[in-house]
Amino acid sequence: MSALPPDGPPPQDDLLLRFTRGDVGRARALRANLEVLREASGDRDFARLVDDVLAGRRTLREAVRAPEFDREVAPRVERFGEWWDEQSQEEREALAEQGAQALDEAREER
User: Fold this and answer.
1) Which range marks the domain in which residue 85 is found?
2) CA angle 23–28–32, rounded 5-degree value
3) What pLDDT sits at residue 1?
4) Residue 4 CB: number of other CB atoms within 10 A?
5) Given this model, what pLDDT does residue 13 score?
C-alpha cells in the first residue's frame, strides 16, 4: 500500500484524480465504472477491494495487482474484446463519439 500523508488519507477522489492525471471527467467515469463493477460482482473480496479504492485506502494501481481484481475483471475484459471485434468500423466510431461526449459532460458537471 502507498504511504498516506501523516494527516490521514486524501479526499477519496484525489487518488482517482491523480490516476487520471487531473482529468476530472475521466476520474468521474472511472469512479462510476468501479461502482458498476462492484455492484455487478458477487465476489465480496472484490467488492471490498473496490470499496478501498473508492474510499482512498488503496490506489487503483495497487488494486489491479490483487488476484481478486484479476479474477473479476479479466473475464469481463475478454468478453468486451470479443464483442468489440464483432462491431463494424462505423459502430466503433459511433461508440467512441458517445464516449467522448460522455466524458465532456462529466468534465462539465459541478
Assistant:
1) 12-108
2) 150
3) 38
4) 12
5) 56
Q: Per residue of the chain (110 residues), what is the pLDDT tens digit?
A: 333 344 444 445 588 888 888 888 899 899 999 999 999 999 999 999 999 999 989 999 999 999 999 999 999 999 999 999 999 999 999 999 999 998 888 888 76
The CA radius of gyration of the chain, in Å to the nearest whole number, is 16
Answer whether residue 83 is part of any domain.
Answer: yes
Q: Is residue 4 part of a domain?
A: no
DSSP structural state of residue 110: -
φ/ψ of 41, rounded to 5, equals: -85, 140
Which residue is listed with cell 469481463?
76
Orientation of helix 44-54 relative to helix 12-19, angle to 10°: 90
| Amino acid at site 52 | D
CA angle 59, 53, 47 (to 5 degrees): 135
Neighbours of 15 (CB within 10 A): 24
Half-sphere exposure of 101 (CA within 13 A, CB side): 6
Count of domains observed in the chain: 1
